[in-house]
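Hi all, long-time lurker, first post. I run a small reading group and we've been trying to get comfortable going from sequence to structure in the token notation. Rather than ask abstract questions, I figured I'd post a concrete chain and ask someone more experienced to write out its structure so we can walk through it together at our next meeting. Sequence below, copied exactly:
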Amino acid sequence: MSEPREAVILHALEEVALRAAAAGRLEPPRGEAVLRSVVDSTVALFDAEAASIAIHDAASDRLVIRVAAGTAGEGAIGVAFPSSEGIAGYVFTTGQPLAVSDVAADPRFDRGAAERTGYVPRSILAVPLLDDSGSIGVLEVLDRHGDAGFGLRDLDLASVFARQATVAIRASRVERDTAELLRLTLARLAADPAGDRTALDEAVAAITTGLDDEDGSSLWALADAVARARRAAPDQVALVVEILDALARRGSRPAPRSFRR
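-- Answer (accepted) --
Happy to help. Here is the structure in token form:
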């Protein structure tokens, strides 16, 4: 005999919450405000005309400027360009930071994309946003005030800001995916309101791991595994902890980073 619809809905929400909580612990909470603070701080540190963060959109294979700061950055937000074009595209596809003192003399510079932002720079400092799967975006700094250019030390400093932005972006994806998980789970309930708990558990698990398809990450698959492990017997949990600890030690060993090309 099937459960009352209210009980099934409550169980579904509990399953979603369990996985969202696991994913939230794996990815510390951040948000759009962190990205804005990164570009604001970058402008201040480098005394620059502008700074921006462009994030890769997998569906269109374009880099989209999400946040920007500085007097020359106001018109950049929302501008999109192919992920393999321009200086930002070069940095994104290679995963290598770059400082260009004279963009007009650099064949990689995309003047058309710069003009769409309302500002054409003289010099650019660009560093990739890198996570475990490779490049997910680019932080750019445009034109220091005065005649000062960008050097190797500047690349190191900008990379620190890029790492903070990467953490924020990954966390915002957790929030986005949680909303998608909830939407798909409720849609499943609407299609099969009398479904039993076992079928619902399997559906939520499938939806959860399916959220990883966009960027190749295994975050949600891991979140699903953690959620399921929380219901295991104590001796089974101890075994899971031992396995995760062994994998963590193995994963901490240095390994060559592969980048999207």
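A couple of things your group might point at:
The mean pLDDT is 76.
The radius of gyration is 22 Å.
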